[in-house]
Amino acid sequence: MGLYSSLIRRKFRNIAGKRYEHVIREYREFLLTKEEMVLPEINSILMPLDRFVKEIPFDVYDVLSAYDARVLLVYIIDSQIFQIIRQTLNKEASEEFRKKEEEQGLKIVNKISNELENYGIKVQRRLFFGNKSEDIIKLAKDQDMLVISKAYGSEITKTSPLSPIVLKIVQHVYIPTIVY
Amino acid sequence: MNMETIALAVFIFTYALIVSERIHRAVAAMFGASIVLFLKIVPWERVSYYLDLDTIFLLMGMMIIVNTARNSGLFEYIAIKTAKFAKGNPIRVLLLFSVVTALVSSVLDNVTTVLLLTPMLLYISKLMELSPIPFLLSEIFASNIGGTATLIGDPPNIMIGSAANLSFNEFLTNMGLISLLDFILMLGVIYMVYNRALNVSSDKRRRIINSLESLDEKAVIKDIVLFKKSVATIILVVSLFFVHDKIGIEPAVVALFGASLLLLWSMENPEGILERIEWTALFFFGGLFIIVGGLEETGIIAEVAKWVIGHIHSQGEALLVITWFSAFSSAIVDNIPLTAAMIPLIKHMGNSLNIYPLWWALSLGACLGGNGTAIGASANVVVIGIAEREGIKIGFGDFLKMGMVIMVLTVALGVGILWIRYVG
Hints:
The structure holds two protein chains of two kinds.
Chain A: H1 3-16, H2 19-28, H3 34-37, E1 44-49, H4 58-66, E2 70-78, H5 79-88, H6 91-118, E3 122-130, H7 132-140, E4 145-148, H8 164-172, E5 177-179
Parallel strand pairs in A: 1-2, 1-4, 2-3, 4-5
Helix pairs in contact in A: 5-6, 7-8
Chain B: H1 3-20, H2 25-38, H3 47-50, H4 53-70, H5 74-86, H6 90-107, H7 110-128, H8 133-148, H9 155-164, H10 168-194, H11 202-213, H12 224-243, H13 251-266, H14 270-275, H15 279-297, H16 300-311, H17 315-332, H18 335-349, H19 356-369, H20 378-389, H21 396-422
């Protein structure tokens, strides 16, 4: 630090004291931060789906169609449940579970995919076994936006209007997120 | 070692500490004062004579008013309103913020003014994607020029007004016109130098207007009742300043009356407000008065005044010397200690010269000299300090180039007007 710089800092501290910290704290309540001032460019949108996401509101399709972006529909089947069934019952039961889950997954993905395409939105599909929160957090790193249902990962109730899986995801992703 | 040498050594040592800011200026001044008192250079019974309570209570009263008004969100409201009026046009931003800074600085203290306006100015610069430097420089100069206009605008004026018993109206008559012309001159220079850098496309301007429109100035008003009471009290206090000499009350009494009225009317927690008084600044002033008192007691000031008078042959020469000496000195030393030292010197010159014009010369030099360097005035340090925290560098040399031009031009214009009025 140069002589001038340190002199200014000393003088500033002695003249303004902690008043600037108070002023800036008050300003922060209504001025946008540096990050908020930059409009993010949205080219890819991640949209997780599972057995709990039954319907997508039309407003969400409207919002997504406003971006000229590709939507990645991801259906994750909980691999832990698959393992538990395999270990506690038998291989056939677990295979039966896998088959049913994949069928249901494909059905939901295709339905949503068709609806998105009707809005002129480009769609990519993925269906795999994994961890719903960890895999979405990992995938979100390469995407520009996350659009996620409040019910993703678990049933929601009046007393618990947001799935704990969603809560964990939104706490760990650094991209703009819409929770519907 | 005799008392004269000790008093002079304390004075020089303290002022060197203040310039270097190695230790807090208030501590330096208090320590210097305590030595002077300990060695009985200034006898205890003379403390009340040297301690300028008019200045200290006037500052205290205004600090209470500002601190109470701040709780209402008044200053943030002014900042947002100004930003909206500018409509994303860089020239308008420069002009409006300079006008608001100068006006607010003329009635409230410069440090508070720039502390509250600079974050908004930086925000708009970011929105405009322009360098904030022209806006910040203009804000600094406007603050120092605005403060020159009135008795309560800048601490040197408060000290001069108290020492020479000058009224608010006398300040306005003598320094108001000078400040106005200097302000126009300063804006002209800034415009000439930075004109090319102050452009934004119409597309960008539309985006800026949208961003600014999204700011709700009413939302920053934390307490609408306090807001109205603060505005009413500030108007009342400024009105009383206009007539204080006619009704025979001191400016300090006006400020303390306004402060107590606002505290009583608003029912704000006095502990919180009084805690936020800048006690360090008040102790700094107190210490300086005693240290300079030491020079007076030992006769050093009288000797220097005799020497100055011996070398000055006319009223005009005295006017020029006081103005330019205070201007260049206050660009190096803070203008408060400079004024504290110059006041008794000018008082001593009163035996052989008409010193009335010299008070204006001192006010002009001390207030506008602060524009000369980055460390010349408190407003400069605060704005540069905030800019540095936000990653914007305003180097000493960068400031000096612009500051010296503004200082020389504005002081020259001011001294020209004083010359026409009192000499020519």
